[in-house]
Amino acid sequence: MKFATVLAFATAAGAAFASPLASSETTEAGQLSKRQSINYVQNYNGNAANFKYDQHAGTYSTRWTNPPDFVVGLGWSPGNSYRTIKFSGSYSSSSSSYSAVYGWLNNPLTEYYVVENYSYDPCSNSGAQVVGSVTSDGSNYKICKHTQYDQPSIQGTKTFGQYFSVRANKRNSGSVTLSKHFNAWKQHGFANGAANPDFNYQVFATEAFGGTGSASMSVSG
Known about the structure:
By secondary structure, the chain is mainly beta. The chain has one helix and 15 strands. One of its GO terms (biological process) is xylan catabolic process.
């Protein structure tokens, strides 16, 4: 994201709840989890990015030219620590954008990203602290963190932490094993090391704050 600017708000996104699907899967950590239907639409400034979606099908598309900050996508509310998010599609951007898993914790208030493709690396920002790396889903990810002071958030104007994993081998399809990232981040203070973090929403999203680009994605988990 663009540092010192929060690009998504819980109140700005529509949410419609649906029943979990019947199928189950075993996560990389070995925990059996039930796949759940998309029940949350992330739509912050989507009108500036031609955001279109089919919640039932789990698909969305967006196209932008020099937009204001926007974050759009599909996912779940609340999130959890063991979900494996699957995504596939296309993403192209000239600058200032990510394709990523995105979410928030309620307490401690925290914003997080697992960046799968990008035209701007948030860990390259001078305000970010690179603290380590994690290997997951066929690639190394750089880990960085940052503190936002007195900035808008899902709880109003607050000071809160941000955590990022940025994938070395960019991709437009695959699976994101969230537990691997959360466990790695906990070594650097994420969720104060809590075994069961207090999750707010959790989505696969496209974000941009400049440039031109487009994305079309299918999301499941």
